[in-house]
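Task card 7
Instruction: Convert sequence to structure tokens.
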Amino acid sequence: MTSLDKPTSDTDQPHRTDQQDADAKAVTEAALFEAFGGVRGMVETVLPGLLFVTIFTINQDLTASAIAALAVSVALVVVRLVRKDTVKHAFSGVFGVAFGVVFAKMTGEAKDFYLPGMIYTLGLALAYLVTTLAGVPLIGLILGPVFKENLSWRTRNPGRKKAYAKASYAWGLILLAKCAILFPLYWWADTTQLGWVLVSLKIPPFLLAVYLTWVFLAKAPPPIDVFAEMEAEEQAEKARKAEQGARAAEARNHDL
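Output:
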């Protein structure tokens, strides 16, 4: 069993000082901002839907509302491309808005602009819960590469796996609660009522889930940097081969 496969337990973790706890919280906060897009990502998530419901509330025009929402989504991607920023959050927004526009135009119901996003939210909630029950919490799959630990938490860092499980359950239950509000409104409320409630529920549940994730991970054992470990092993292997080469050369010189 190599060092990369060797499991650790919670008791193997040294007691952390207050400064180390503060550093862990700062690293976790930075990783969460990177993974979920931070303030700018939240703006890009909310703005298209807000524009759609605002315009539709004013003039009840599905086409104008859809074009405006799609246009602002594309504009956000263009801005990121020009600034050479990460575009994954903006692109996901474009695809979400595009699906909503296509669905609404196909059915002729402005309310259906929101339906693909609602179905996605429900699917994501179930994914968080099912993957956690299966022993591979989704939030760990998302954040593992960000923390440079990949999947090492599954077998080598049980305290961290437990934190990922708690965070994934939090995400799943929060999103299910959101769906429990939105789907009845889809059937009973009109487009503007559903739209304003949906926009108002974009940020608070997300912030709650991110906050709980931060709390769970900040208290968990630090991540195992598997990239640093692999690099260290590669350096050790190179040193070993160099030493063997030197010994072989010395042996040849001795024979001569």
